[in-house]
Amino acid sequence: MKSILKISDLSKSYGGEYAVQNLNMHITQGDIYGFLGQNGSGKTTTIRMILGLIEPTSGYVELFGEPVSKRNYQVFRRIGSMVEYPGAYENLTAVENLEIHRKLMGIKKRDSVEEVLHLVGLSEARNKKVGEFSLGMKQRLGIGRTLLHKPELLVLDEPTNGLDPVGIKEIRELIVTLAKRDKITILVSSHLLSEIEQMATKIGIINKGLLLEEITLDSLIKKSERYIRVKVNDADAAIECLTKNLNIKEFTVENGVLKVYERLQEAVDINRLLVTNNIDVEEICLIEDKLEDYFLKLIGGLV
């Protein structure tokens, strides 16, 4: 896959205190990259460095395979971004706001405004003053403004912040549509795991300026699966016993501990079978880890 964004050992300090430290990130074409962390974890600082709004203390950023520098700032023309709250002229209509931005960006295609309004679901509100918009509509207009020049990478900082459930759902569905239908690679930050897990294909978890983990959503979901944890004195004998007698195939083993991902209601029977076959069972229990539990353990340093 084509590299869209690569960050290497990126740091930013203020007065000796690090807001972001030695951060590495890689986003490839087609990703919806969920940048997940609590408020104050370093998400916005990282995004501002990516967009060239602040200088890093150390490290570097590559966009579309090119290192970002003052000599090639034209690379940012390939990016659309919305950092924190999107500003707009509230006494003007949606069309008028987008027309101003189109002209400032030097976009010659006049019908790009109508295309964007349709894309973000604001066609019917095109002549309505922005001051009369709901917060969710304002967020969609802000995203629309970032799409006028047809960017290859879209960077959204907390786009669902402050929205009601309906507004959150609208923004989430819009992000997924832009990635799937319009083939835009997206970096979206949030402090809400519940939102990120519903749209991201890849997740980076940041806490106190450190990227703790970068993982695909599928791999993260596997960490939340239910399983029977079995600690035995002879893992090989236990595997042979369970495979032969119960036809168990979905399992992993590490350091003498088995994780059995099937027959989850039969822990008692599994225990009895192992003991009957002279395998010492030191521990057996049903584990039900949720994504939220894993996230909290990770930022708490317990994973």
TrEMBL record:
UniProt superkingdom: Bacteria
Pfam families hit by this protein: ABC_tran (PF00005)
Keyword ATP-binding belongs to the record: yes
Keyword Nucleus: no
Domain ABC transporter: from-to ranges: 5-233
Keywords for the protein's UniProt record, in alphabetical order: ATP-binding, Nucleotide-binding, Transport
GO molecular function terms attached to this record: ATP binding; ATP hydrolysis activity
Family membership noted in the UniProt record: Belongs to the ABC transporter superfamily.
UniProt cross-references to PANTHER family, sorted A to Z: ABC TRANSPORTER, ATP-BINDING PROTEIN
Protein name: ABC transporter ATP-binding protein
Organism field: Desulfosporosinus fructosivorans
Species classification: Bacteria, Bacillati, Bacillota, Clostridia, Eubacteriales
